[in-house]
Specification:
This protein has 127 residues and is α/β, with parallel strands linked by helices. The chain contains three helices and seven strands. Helices cover 27% and strands 35% of the residues. Strands 1, 2, 3, 4, 5, 6 and 7 form a seven-stranded mixed sheet that branches. The chain is globular, with a radius of gyration of 16 Å.
Amino acid sequence: MVEIEYRPYQKIVVHELRKLDVPDFFKSIVEQAEAQKQAGIPAVNWIDGVAFAIGQFPPTPETISENLKGIIHYAIVSFTETSFQEEKRAMVNSREFPVRMLKADKNPDFVELVKYLKSFKATPNSS
């Protein structure tokens, strides 16, 4: 019989935090999706009044090694405080684009991340 072991991450390290106002946050999500030529409607996570998007580091030997030690490194987390809607609209270059919002409150790591984001105080060098 196979042995199964569950090892949740122990630590999240965020290297850049960017708190934006609502229109700028959703505009940046659309601009990133357009720049990366992503098909479909872009989406962001939402928990308890906070919409957020995570920029990952590429999987390198160093990041994989850290993951195996229980540490996640996020290159950037951008976020805004907003109410939940299944879809928000963003204006980019005089055109309106949809952005989906996904409730992510079933992910305990994201729940803890949002608690941290809610306590984050932007400084001139942090955004």
